């Protein structure tokens, strides 16, 4: 993991990070958070099938907070995100004006989480949403 983090720290041209189906899900999550904090201009972040739940989404949301994010696509499909995680994502979306695609297929988000996300879309410019 430390090698991937070092590469991401020094790489200024990477625009897409795809860690989908990584066998070491904690590595993917920590690496994504690290690269997001250090370079908020990545345009695509894929974290499909990482067993990410509400606690991990809260961790990612903390990495996103306080930073003007410029990514346009976020894929968190096939994870274990519930209403609490959706609420954390909604808070992040209120500060991200560039996100166009959010994929949350095959998660555990219920009506409460969905409502939080839909409220955030009133502020955000998301044009494609899958749940």
Automatic annotation (TrEMBL):
Provenance organism: Rotaria socialis
GO molecular function, one term: small GTPase binding
Identification of the protein by name: Uncharacterized protein
InterPro entries: Leu-rich_rpt, LRR_dom_sf, RanGap
Biological process annotations from GO: nucleocytoplasmic transport
Pfam families documented for this protein: LRR_6
One GO CC term on file: perinuclear region of cytoplasm
Source organism superkingdom: Eukaryota
Keywords: GTPase activation, Leucine-rich repeat, Repeat
